[in-house]
Amino acid sequence: MALTKLEIERALGPIEPHLAAEIAAIDATVADLVKALAWLQSDEALVNDGDHLPTGAVAELIGILETADDEDSFDVPASGEGDWAQQ
Asked: Rounded CA gap, 21 and 84, in Å?
């Protein structure tokens, strides 16, 4: 089941509608989005902990969020920010 706009904004905060639509279009789960955010916040730490590099929906989400971050239309939330941190 695709992420809803509410789920996406709970994890990322307010974002542009086109970015929410792009994220929803890949049919990722909340768990995929949380994992993608963890990789964006601390990829080196996850590699050092032995996690495998992301694939599938998580890798797609990382690509989308990195591009949006580079274009200044989105900022990756700091670790511990947002409702997703409590999930």
From this structure: 19
- Measured CA to CA, the distance from residue 3 to residue 32 in angstroms comes to 10
Length of the chain: 87
Run means of pLDDT, 10 residues per run, the chain, 87 residues: 87 89 92 89 65 85 86 64 47
CA–CA dist 51, 71 (Å, integer): 28
Q: Mark out the alpha helices in the chain (DSSP H runs).
A: 5-12, 17-25, 30-48, 56-70
CA 48, CA 10: separation in Å to the nearest integer?
28
For 37-52, b/e burial (b = at least 16 CB within 10 A) is bbbeeeeeebeeeeee
d(CA 51, CA 76): 20
